[in-house]
Amino acid sequence: MANTLYLGIVGVGGVGTALLEQLGRLSNPPKLVLLSRSTKTLVAQTPSYSHSIPFEAWEIAAAAPSITTVDALAPEDTAAYLGSAPGRSILVDNTSDLTLAKAYPIFLKQGISVVTPNKKGFSADISLWNDIFASAADGNALVYHQATVGGSLPVLSTLRDLMATGDEIVKIEGVLSGTLSLLFDTFMPAIGKSDAKWSSLVAHALQIGFMEPDPRDDLNGMDFARKLTILARVAGLQVTGPESFPVTSLIPNELLSLPLSAEGIAQFMLELPNYDEDMEVAKLKAEEEGKVLRYIGSIDVSTGEIQVGMRHLDRDNPIANLKGSQIVSIYTKRYGANPLVLKGGGGGGEVTAMCVMSDLLKVMEGLA
Amino acid sequence: MANTLYLGIVGVGGVGTALLEQLGRLSNPPKLVLLSRSTKTLVAQTPSYSHSIPFEAWEIAAAAPSITTVDALAPEDTAAYLGSAPGRSILVDNTSDLTLAKAYPIFLKQGISVVTPNKKGFSADISLWNDIFASAADGNALVYHQATVGGSLPVLSTLRDLMATGDEIVKIEGVLSGTLSLLFDTFMPAIGKSDAKWSSLVAHALQIGFMEPDPRDDLNGMDFARKLTILARVAGLQVTGPESFPVTSLIPNELLSLPLSAEGIAQFMLELPNYDEDMEVAKLKAEEEGKVLRYIGSIDVSTGEIQVGMRHLDRDNPIANLKGSQIVSIYTKRYGANPLVLKGGGGGGEVTAMCVMSDLLKVMEGLA
């Protein structure tokens, strides 16, 4: 168990910084030999890789003995560098970069394990998904991406455990966007009433930093659809991609053509109140049934049917009263009518880093 | 990764039988070289251990080539046998036997990993707990006992993940008895009303096999307290044992002296209706507050305070509407006010076996 493991970390934003801090507290951490941010990369001296980069802020790390600062490396070069280390190595990708994700197979084939919260690769074309896992098998490397679905909830590991032990997944339902969860919960609370206009709730969420900088990135449902794609693939479905199933966008049709610029965002927020009536109508329809309106995703594993959109739920449905949490209900053959439910606060840098760290610890155990 | 792993299974009841079936479906199972039930043990021929016991019913397994049937082995002999296998070995204990559990340190010191749903050892004296984990470290062996808490919910692994990544556990609350969950949920539903008497609900649950053969084993709260002890210990508290904190027994004081015999059970069920009034009063008190009565356990990690008993909960508290599920809410520093919640159906042989199997797969990965 005393084999040295070599670690490369790409991305030093909120998640990367929190991860470095958590690594610094490990009693037996892997050896950090590559640390990369957008334009610069720190590397340890080859061919010995004998010095390691300290788990510190960039400037301190860069000044450590035998650590060199080079320009940003292409994914292939990062793979070649880690692949030449005198032991098993691990890539942690903290970016949301598709280019790097597309290169995972190159890493994996060389036996470099991959740990990442980056959804892009796993929700892109199914051929990349299949290539990733075939390459991992080829290279005898591990791939962990728990944080790509359900924030810090142990959704993927639980699902994989159920399947590895021969249970049959019947259906998966959930709310995989903390932002949309909070918006719908305040727009139409399960208990009590609210008169707040939809557009004013969106404006408020944007103001307090609870949405993506461009709110349309939350409202179009695509982030949710990407997570659902990953979940369905882990459940065994060969889903072509997040565009291959119906996703209800909460962006009014008339506003779809607004530019992606800051002006486009401002224009969108200015015009959104004109469409409040549509959301009021949707709310009223749910109310007439004595139910609440929620934005949820579902996967029917037997029919392969996947959808993301608004649905009417009973007020006592656990999904109806989330207050900004995410939730996933897994129905299986063994569990019957009483699904396995995982619920909890969403992401955030430190929590996501914890999830990455937990994956990393498993990979370290697996390679030890 | 091609090292052969040697497996010994003790206990071939509901869980053991389901586990054998699940093992039979693995593409790369460990080599079963010991299978033991109360009075008989099957072993593979030493010193080669080259034949394995098939994953089949006892009679078929016993008739396999080079498999010998011997009398029940003492734990020390089982450990000696597994310890002499020409590779790493694993003990799966499917019993609820304290004697075998007390011998875990003997196995672990010899490098034999332990996987078990048996609560007895982990909730007994704290010195055994400490001995188990110290022995595992000594012998470089693994101990997995996920199924001892929360049925098949990934409670312990999630808790350990949180702690391994440096989160601080603040508080844990939950319902760790599917039986008591169902009794209280039908006695005082979160939605709607019930006029059913407490004693008649107990009688019904007993009749449909949803309780232990002696219902007092559920009603005294000790099984719940044992699970809470394990949970608290994993959270880092050195809990002396399940008798070291307040546990409200649902057995009326006057009936405590009834014998443990079948006659005692019959007498207990006959007299229980005389105490329905007490439960009605408890129910009324909750109702006056607009709340519901539930039987829950809680661990305050900072003060070390642990308790199991009846509490008044808001009707919209997720714990209030379980319908026989178990639930655990984990409050941590990172999660803040929004706890991580795990909820799902209780145990049952096949589900418990799945949980054991999932642990076993992790041990196999760890030893490979």
Automatic annotation (TrEMBL), chains A, B:
**Role, per record:** Catalyzes the conversion of L-aspartate-beta-semialdehyde (L-Asa) to L-homoserine (L-Hse), the third step in the biosynthesis of amino acids that derive from aspartate (the aspartate family of amino acids), including methioinine and threonine, the latter of which is a precursor to isoleucine; production of homoserine leads to a branch-point in the pathway as it can either be O-phosphorylated for processing to threonine, or O-acylated for processing to methionine.
- The species this protein was found in: Penicillium malachiteum
Q: Which domain of life is it from?
A: Eukaryota
- Keywords associated with the record: Amino-acid biosynthesis, Methionine biosynthesis, NADP, Oxidoreductase, Threonine biosynthesis
* Assigned EC number: 1.1.1.3
Family assignment from sequence similarity: Belongs to the homoserine dehydrogenase family.
CC cofactor: a metal cation
Query: Homoserine dehydrogenase catalytic domain: which residues?
Result: 154-361
Q: Mind telling me which Pfam families this protein's record contains?
A: Homoserine_dh, NAD_binding_3
- UniProt pathway: Amino-acid biosynthesis; L-methionine biosynthesis via de novo pathway; L-homoserine from L-aspartate: step 3/3; Amino-acid biosynthesis; L-threonine biosynthesis; L-threonine from L-aspartate: step 3/5
* Stated name of the protein: Homoserine dehydrogenase
Give start and end of each Aspartate/homoserine dehydrogenase NAD-binding domain.
11-145
Taxon lineage: Eukaryota, Fungi, Dikarya, Ascomycota, Pezizomycotina
